[in-house]
Amino acid sequence: MAQIGQVLVDVPTMQTNDPYSYAIPAELEQQVQLGMRVTVPFGRGHRVVSGVVVGLSDGTNFDGQLKPIASVLDLAPVLNEELRQLADWLADQTYAFRITCIQTMLPNLLKAQTAREIKPTTELSPAEMAQYFPDGAPREFDTSKLDDKTMAGLLRLQRAGKVEVTYQVTSKATAKTVTGILPAQSIDELKAHQDAVVKRAPKQAKLLAYLQTLSPTTPVAQSRVSHDTGVSAAVITAAEAKGWLVKQPIEVYRDPFQRPVTPTAPLTLNTAQQTAVTAITQAIDEQQSQNFLVEGVTGSGKTEVYLQSIAVALDQGRTALMLVPEIALTPQMVNRVKARFGHRVAVLHSGLSKGEQYDEWRRIDRGEATVVVGARSAVFAPVKNLGIIIMDEEHESSYKQDENPRYHARDVALWRGRYHHCPVVLGSATPSLETRARASKGLYTRLLLAKRVNDHPLPTVHVVDMREALKQQGESDFSEPLLTAIQARLDRHEQVVLMLNRRGYSSFVMCRDCGFVLKCPNCDISLTLHMDTHTMKCHYCGHEEAIPHVCPNCHSRKIRYYGTGTQKVEQALQQLVPTARILRMDVDSTRRKGAHEKILRQFGQHEADILLGTQMIAKGLDFPDVTLVGVLNADTALGLPDFRASERTFQLLTQVSGRAGRADKPGEVYIQTFNPDHYAIELAKDQDYERFFVTEMHMRHQGNYPPYYFAVQVTASHEDEATAAKAMYQIVAAVKKGLSANAIVLGPTPKAIARVKRKYYYQVVIKYKHEPQLKSVLEQIRQAAQIPARHGLSVTIDPEPMNFM
Ligand SMILES: Nc1ncnc2c1ncn2[C@@H]1O[C@H](COP(=O)(O)OP(=O)(O)OP(=O)(O)O)[C@@H](O)[C@H]1O
Ligand SMILES: [Zn+2]
Ligand SMILES: [Zn+2]
Q1: For 154-190, how does the pLDDT look when each residue is reduced to its tens digit (9 = 90+)?
Q2: pTM here?
Q3: Can you quote a single GO CC term (predicted)?
Q4: Hey, what domains does the chain have and what are their CATH numbers?
Q5: From CA 154, how far away is CA 116, in angstroms rounded?
Q6: Residues near 438 by Cβ (< 8 Å), separated by ≥ 6?
Q7: Nearest CA to ligand 1 atom 5
Q8: ipTM tops the 0.90 cut
């Protein structure tokens, strides 16, 4: 046996981080490479499972019996050396399995067993075309059906960039090639044919003349040929039959943002921006893995700093990765990057179809796109030769994945920065406490943009005490001061952004006679009323049922709606200001593809006076005529059982306030709250991040919370409550044995929302500073959890959890 491949197999019920050894049969020896996906027989039944080759070794002296690799799924590796190392590190950091990490890194299309197709690129010569693609069409790529010689030949062509393997998606919306035309004979031969037919078949002659002008290697779209010559498809097909030309598919990429973007030139930087760009440039020049925190107030021009830093990296022939939170991945931000870097930009986010995602991934992998913009998972984009990594709104909790592997994109970005010896730039108006604390310790270089561009002032913020408002004007979502301010904007033809911290029509239904609240039968939480579908929905499991008209408990008809949702607020507002044109932006109104973009475009073009939305309007929007921001309910997040409640509230209020007065007209903000004295609200009023940081650090110190302590959360869940609780107590006992007296164990407790999707959840949170044993104890818990997993018990380990609910 010449070679042995180490394969990480994908068997969900029997995960392990150790690869299995497989023999590489002679016929696959030329093909198998590190980082390729393969299929292998597994277990007693020898069923075929997929896996990834993570090691190759010489098997000459191996005399045992090994099962052979069954087939190779890729022609080129899907994981390069960097990403393989990253997967190992990620598995270690997040207590996830290596194969799970690898799957997270690959585009969706590569995760499933999709049909594969091999097809020519424009580099393929007509002779090779004729040999390997006799019918001119892409062919199925199935190693078990191709003979060795063909396989070897294709492999050679692939290395030369002459063919490639693509993955067929089943949906019809993926047509991504157009028919192209290549001349199949020499100019002299074509000329001879032309002379021969010129009298009797002028159309054919015309086509033959045209073919003589074409390159023999670069196909021209058939539609183009028809347009230029005026000949029909039938004439072209006849010419193909005569051997004068060949048809070859031309790949066209799907562009997820079709709208043309007007190019922009770099702006002249102000002093603070220039200082920041200079510092970052130096790190790029010196190929240092130095990390920066760009702490810049809202509207201070952070984006311009990012763009000019990216330009520096590109000038040096390196690439750039820019991460933005999903929610901020608005067309506005994408357009700003595209306007500067044009077709060099690839965009990755969850709104793309699998095919679009894969197209972008391939453009990156081939080096065609050198600037990658994307949400969390884009941190795994296969960009080579990185010169800079940027993470905008670095405080956003959506950068943490809340399923396996539970990674934080910031940690991955920092790892890649070290790997590529390039700077990582974390930017925010309201940095996470962790990041700001690290900057204090000197781990990140802090670059401060303390003022808005052009010395525009920050908006004036008013806090409205809703307890008083309620006494004076009764129940309403709009206080008098806010309404007056809205009316003033309408009179002056300026624009208003209103934020409501919720979705749906009203949060729950309650009986006024007996207090009965309609809850989800699967989860222990109230159902939400949705007026668009006229149903009650559970936001956790998706359960849906009819709206009750009588109380299911006491049969009273006095069952009514409580709470506030965007649709209800929209209706109330429309009654209060009948002339206002209102756009609503929430999960429901943005469900359709492109809806988000459309609403923002309408607002930008002044087709509406008021943009009313949920948290999704808080970030990144840059509209010059918005001079008023209103926050209808500032408190919703304050009461949550989460030590980050204040931080989140402060961040959200500061970010949304920052939408007001960004250009020449001054901005004003009204924050309605039932807790006007809370420090998060008071400091958001002053937009004083530094004081908030100091205050909140003090609170964290007192409560022994991050960033003073590390935290890890372990959760056990089962349909049977006792089973979940028992498992959790056993886990806690095991953990405690391995911990020193300095560690703090919170729990076990039922989760704040104890029952979700028919399962009960118990959790423990361990806070610690230095516990060398903890890692191996948690490893053991993870291993042990594999067996009960088959009986419905699941155990998750979440390092530095973001969500305590
Ligand atoms: N040097 C400059 N000269 C003139 N205008 C600038 C300059 N830098 C940025 N701007 C403009 O200032 C506005 C605000 O900048 P930008 O959106 O980058 O701020 P930001 O710091 O990212 O804000 P936020 O955190 O609120 O999103 C934009 O319209 C931008 O075009
Ligand atoms: Zn539910
Ligand atoms: Zn009742």
Answers
A1: 878 877 878 877 655 433 234 367 788 988 888 899 9
A2: 0.79
A3: primosome complex
A4: 3-114 (3.40.1440.60), 177-252 (no CATH), 271-453 (3.40.50.300), 460-506+563-700 (3.40.50.300), 710-799 (3.30.70.600)
A5: 14
A6: 293, 444, 707
A7: 453
A8: yes
